[in-house]
Amino acid sequence: MDNNRSTVTQPIIDLQNVAVGYDNREDVLQNVYFSLLPGSFTFITGKSGAGKTTLLNMLYLIKKPRKGMLSVFGNNINFSNRDTLALLRQKIGVVFQDFRLLEHLSVYDNIALPLRVRGMSEKEIYKRVTELLQWVELHKSIYKICASLSGGEKQRIAIARAVINRPEILFADEPTGSVDAEIADKLMRLFVELNKVGTTVVIATHNEQLTSSYNYPRITLSNGTAKLYPALRKV
Length: 235
Fold this sequence. Notes:
Number of strands: 10
Number of helices: 7
Strand content: 15-25%
Shape: globular
Largest sheet: 6 strands, mixed
Distance between the termini: 35 Å
Strand order of the largest sheet: 6-7-8-3-9-10
């Protein structure tokens, strides 16, 4: 046995010549090639309408590519059935631009919902939710109704709900788009901390100041295709 061989890390996401679009309209993106490794942190950038949300919809398995190969956790999505896709989605967390919280429920119940769907015990749910609320600095708001909270607070709740199942990869669609610079920086620090403990993080944003402040690789969408730019320096 050759003990000098290096271990090759398989991509957590791999796109080869992918095209994606809607119904009978022209493809939004074409000829897309890129791979993301486990534990990476990547921005998806581009102007409004460039296809960031469309790409995310495909990466978190809402859409399938029209052409090419998309592999997620080593599974070719075009040949994955509904049950396989459901299992893969359990490894994925998503933070939506519009929060998608149940406004009439409490902070606690919104974050607890994914665990209740899984049938976890209330004792374990309480432990996980209260730990996460400490982490996002909202433990004093545990029983407040979400409709009464600010946009920044709602976004932190959305992040907590997205990671309560301890996903292997987290997607966030314009997570700082509706908050001020101070809250945006606080949200980014949460994503950085998640990445440090091993979560693969992918953030779609059109905020150039944000991407220039954090030195991570970025996938830039323009003219219907995507180009991967490496980080300028090691972080």
